[in-house]
TrEMBL record:
The keyword Signal applies. It comes from the Bacteria. It comes from Chitinophaga silvisoli. Keywords: Cell outer membrane, Membrane, Signal. InterPro entries: Bact_OuterMem_StrucFunc, OMP_bac, OmpA-like, OmpA-like_sf. GO terms for cellular component: cell outer membrane. Pfam families: OmpA. Its main location: membrane. Residues 377-494 form the OmpA-like domain. The keyword Membrane applies. Gene3D superfamilies: Galactose-binding domain-like, OmpA-like domain. This is OmpA-like domain-containing protein. It is found in: Cell outer membrane.
Amino acid sequence: MKLSFLILFFCYCTKLLMAQNIVPNASFEEVNICTEYIAPCAPCGWMAVAPEMIKMKYLCNGAALQGQHYVSLLQEGPVENPDSRVYIQTRLLCALQKGQAYKIRVYMNTENYPLRIGLRFDTAFIFSENAGCLSQSVSVELNEVDQQKKLWHTKMPWYILEKTYVAPNNATHLILGNFKAPIRKNGFSGYSNAQLLIDSISITPVNEQLPMCPDTAATRAALYAEHHRHTIPENLTPGRTVVHTLNGTHEGCDTLILKDDLFNQDHTTISERYKQQINEALKNYRGDTSMRIKLVGHAWQAASEEYNKIISYDKAKAVATFLVYNEGYSFDDFQISGEGKSNPRYDTSAGGGDNNRVEMILCHVTAPPVLIVKKPVPPPDTLVIPDILFKFNSSELNPALHTALDSLMKKIPGDGSVQLQVTGHTDNAGNDDYNYNLSLRRANAVATYMQQYGVGNDIRQISGAGESQPVADNKTPEGRRKNRRVEIIIFHTTD
């Protein structure tokens, strides 16, 4: 009897695993802290197709159907630029297999656009330096015909759309957005700034006997380890592009970032395999006699600062030498310098990486080349809502002390320049479950008050930590009082 039970239990669990959703962070609940601003800015595992131009709106304002978060995608831009789009993408936890059927379910909502969403399955990430309509075709579209159910939450309608899709080819990546060009009448589109809200998406194999991939956990870990969200993460692009163009980034001057792969091991000559990329990148500047070029070398080697300055200067000079003897420039056209390790552009936690580079800043004489000094992002601030502002052993705020709470609310900028995280905490009195639930209820109570006060639209995460993060000793009444609190963490951003 016991053996039969174990066999049935194993089969049941196996069936559940086989029907697992292959979309990572499918309801967008897990939050990514971006490298650029050290602040919550996107759902883990998901990236925008054109991150340097336009990004997804990642919202936590009580309107989500499930959990706290949902995303808003621009379906068509304003009247003057209706081709504008926001696409988001991820890598599937398990690849689609050719000929296999999959059930696609999307929870979505839109107020000013037809109820539809396009999905493209591909074999790699797609990135773009403009926010226009993608030229790639859609793999499958869900629309009003696929509506299964209409639900209401906070007076907002949410729709469940579902469709079965048979994969014509193997695929590893998923892109969501509007792949249709706008229909224009008299030069104008019928929609303007149309938004689509997505609360969650699931893709599950119809064949429940189809085994899950053995590297699912590794795929999720690799996706969650990527924290770059505001520029194209070049380690995810196919192949290796050694020239990256940033237009107008230095007061009207264009910048070409030449990566370290460009150079041979002697650091003084350029590899033949990449000369075509330089030629292509410079084609728009040829023949401009007013153009002046600043070449700034950067190095991030495990050596002294003086050595890095020498190496960075040598690489900048090697680029100038190449342009003089191959592109018809004169040495008088260049200002050459080497900055060593003094100005990293990329994340330095994993080593030098792309910080080994030469930046070619191209300017007209009317716009002198000036290096932009990055505006420092202030560290996060923390506002503490003490236990005294709540009724005893309750998540209900004390109305008699709203004046004190209002004074704290005034410290939160209301200009959209911050992102907020609300976390509740308790002392160690009571069991773990009770403390966790009390801390979460108190965090939600503060978040609700913030909404009513008018500073809640920038909340990105609401959570309870229970007794797990004390700030004082729980052995004393004073320490326990300090531990009973709600923290509002204010992340500043220039984005």
